[in-house]
Write a structure and sequence with these properties.
Elements: H1 9-13, E1 22-24, E2 31-33, H2 38-60, H3 65-72, H4 79-94, H5 107-142, H6 149-168, E3 176-180, H7 184-199, E4 204-212, H8 224-240, E5 245-250, H9 259-267, H10 285-292, E6 299-303, H11 310-324, E7 330-334, H12 341-345, E8 354-357, E9 360-364, H13 367-389, H14 397-409, H15 415-428, E10 442-446, H16 450-476, H17 484-504, E11 510-517, H18 520-535, E12 543-548, H19 556-574, E13 581-585, H20 594-602, E14 605-607
Parallel strand pairs: 3-4, 4-5, 6-10, 6-11, 7-9, 7-10, 11-12, 12-13
Antiparallel strand pairs: 1-2, 8-9, 13-14
Bound molecules: zinc ion (ZN).
The site of zinc ion (ZN) has 8 residues, from helix 19.
Length: 609
């Protein structure tokens, strides 16, 4: 089962997959595969519990049927994490599978997925608090309280959260295999992730280092330096996972696709993909820059499949733009919960951000911290509201207050995307309250891998829907609740989100640079991403093909790889994802720090097929 919203499992197996498990032809045993449909799974999950949720909401809040309907109609960002594990368990329970192998989304969102059992238990707690008033009333009016269907649903959610939590932290029933690349940045990300996994009591049973370069036979300008850089990274991996089971898989010349190729990969290591492009005409960085940065550009987004190197590309591009346009105030912003920006620049960054060089500022969003801050702010507002509005005494005020505080405590799914979008608003949209001009001229955005990038881009609209629903309810109850600061805050945020939505779809102000590698599986996902962006009317800029072997290859393997890669580029263009391409060479060791990134960006070449 793949739980990554940008599914690649079907590409790897070379079959079309849906949410319904499909039998895969194998020589022995029985193998089934499916790609999770999160929206479908959530509807199914909600539908079965909807009557109970409605009863609980009516009992525990002041909302009426109309209000509750309004919330049931809203789309929920972050559903992939919310229902991912629940759905995997449902599939596993449906049929007698002996083992379920889950292909997860890249790092940051996988940590969110694995933290979901705790969230389920929190949801059960909130629902329980909503029921508390009803229980209290029944007891004081009718004596004994009789449990009903609503209590059963709350118990079931609590049980589900608890058993999922037990499952993912049980090393006997659940084994986590960490897959990484033999590169410095991947090592840094993996170390952070293993700490994060430890915090939610998930242990890593095994580490697979993928796409390692085989030792070159003679001297080769292409794979020689790469091999030495990887050797260093492999030593760091051995140090980072002492006593762990680390397997190294050599990159193959042809990316493994289909059952036969995958079987071979499982059996023994083979060899990878790195190629040269024949017709690349070198152009100076000025040429690349003008194509990438039209005058008046506000937002330059970098996105693509995990492992293509978009963070390094975003960081290097930001430095190149700063060099060409020294008068611009540039913010490099990372919204991938598994931040790599600090690793790319080789300095500590974090949520407060820091100056990289004059005119360039970098920041890594910490959604949890931002959420806590906002929560504190609203907690006070809610306390004030209750103090003023329930002055004197009403016997049930304590229950109401608990419910509202609970709701404020419950982190919404899609937290990273929500705060990512709010940070963009802060950087780019001048506000009537704060300032006349925006703090930055240009934001270079390092996004999370594909699936979550699409979610981020849809976020301004989904957040607006929620704000409108909240405002409608506030307005409806304005005779009980005074509108005050909260309503004003919501209105202002709605205005800003709308403005951001307009910037996102304006080709003069926004360009999305799809970062890719010239390899089969990456290409398939790249083409889908390009189509999804076109459908969402997000203006695409040039496609950046990273990690090409532009150095003259000497060994036979590199020469073969060069041809494979050139073929992949031609396919990218034919499939509509590469009308213009910017080619970035693989360099070893990978560029790290301001100087190395700037130098690297100067070697990028425009490729006009
Ligand atoms: Zn070579």
């Amino acid at each position: 089962v793949s739980t990554d919203p940008a599914h690649s499992l079907g590409d790897a197996l070379a079959v079309r997959l849906t949410a319904k498990p499909r039998r895969i032809r194998t020589r022995r045993g029985a193998l089934f595969a499916s790609e999770l449909d999160a929206d479908g799974a959530l509807s199914r999950w909600l539908e079965a519990r909807e009557p109970a949720f409605r009863t609980i909401a009516a009992r525990g809040t002041y909302l009426d049927d109309e209000d509750i309907d309004r919330f049931f109609r809203l789309s929920l960002p972050g559903v992939d994490e919310l229902v991912g594990l629940v759905e995997v368990m449902r599939l596993a329970g449906q049929s007698p599978y002996d083992r379920v192998i889950v292909d997860t989304a890249p790092t940051g969102h996988t940590l969110r997925l694995l933290a979901m059992p705790a969230t389920l238990r929190r949801i059960a707690e909130v629902l329980g608090d909503m029921q508390a008033k009803h229980r209290f009333l029944s007891e004081s009016l009718g004596g004994a309280y009789r449990r009903d269907a609503a209590d059963a649903v709350i118990d079931e959610i609590e049980r589900e959260g608890k058993s999922l939590q037990a499952l993912v932290s049980d090393p006997v029933r659940c084994a986590f295999t960490w897959v990484m690349l033999p590169e410095e940045m991947s090592v840094a990300e993996s170390k952070d992730a293993v700490v994060g996994l430890g915090e939610i009591r998930v242990s890593v049973a095994r580490v697979v280092v993928n796409r390692a370069t085989p030792e070159p036979a003679g001297t080769c300008a292409a794979c020689g330096p790469r091999f030495s850089a990887e050797k260093k990274a492999l030593r760091a991996i051995a140090d980072a996972f002492p006593g762990g089971r680390v397997s190294v898989v050599e990159g193959r010349e042809e990316e493994p696709r289909g059952v036969a190729a995958l079987r071979k990969l499982g059996q023994k290591s083979a060899v990878g993909v790195r190629v040269e492009v024949g017709s690349a005409a070198p152009v100076g960085v000025a040429g690349s820059r003008t194509r990438m940065i039209p005058e008046g550009l506000k937002l330059l987004l970098f996105g693509g499949k995990g492992g293509v190197g978009k963070t390094s590309c975003a960081a290097a591009a930001a430095l190149a733009v700063a060099e060409a346009m020294p008068e611009k105030r540039i913010l490099v912003l990372s919204v991938d919960p598994a931040h790599s920006l600090a690793d790319a620049f080789g300095v500590v960054i974090g949520d407060d951000g820091r100056s990289i060089e004059p005119g360039v500022f970098a920041r890594e969003i910490d959604a949890n911290r931002l959420f806590s801050a906002r929560r504190e702010k609203y907690r006070e507002a809610v306390d004030e509201l209750f103090d003023s509005f329930l002055r004197g005494s009403r016997f049930d005020a304590a229950y109401d207050r608990a419910v509202v505080q609970d709701l404020i405590d419950l982190a919404p799914p899609g937290l990273d995307e929500l705060f990512g979008v709010l940070a963009l608003v802060d950087a780019l949209i001048p506000t009537t309250r704060k300032a006349k001009t925006a703090p930055y001229d240009l934001v270079v955005l390092d996004t999370a891998p594909t699936g979550h990038t699409l979610r981020l881009l849809a976020m301004p609209e989904s957040a607006l829907e929620w704000i409108h629903a909240l405002l409608a309810i506030l307005l409806k109850y304005r005779h009980v609740v005074h509108l005050g600061d909260l309503a004003e805050d919501l209105l202002e945020t709605a205005r800003e989100l709308k403005a951001l939505g307009e910037v996102l779809r304006d080709p003069r102000r926004t360009r999305f640079v799809v970062v890719t590698r010239a390899a089969e599986l990456v290409r398939a996902e790249t083409v889908r991403l390009a189509r999804a962006l076109d459908e969402a009317r997000i203006p695409r800029g040039t496609t950046l093909v990273n990690a090409l072997t532009l150095a003259k290859p000497r060994c036979a393997r590199c020469k073969r790889l060069t041809r494979t890669e050139a073929a992949a580029l031609a396919k990218l263009r034919d499939e509509g994802a590469g009308a213009t391409m910017l080619l970035a060479p693989a360099v070893y060791p990978p560029p790290r720090g301001r100087q190395a990134l700037s130098t690297w960006a100067r070697t990028w070449k425009m490729h006009a097929p």
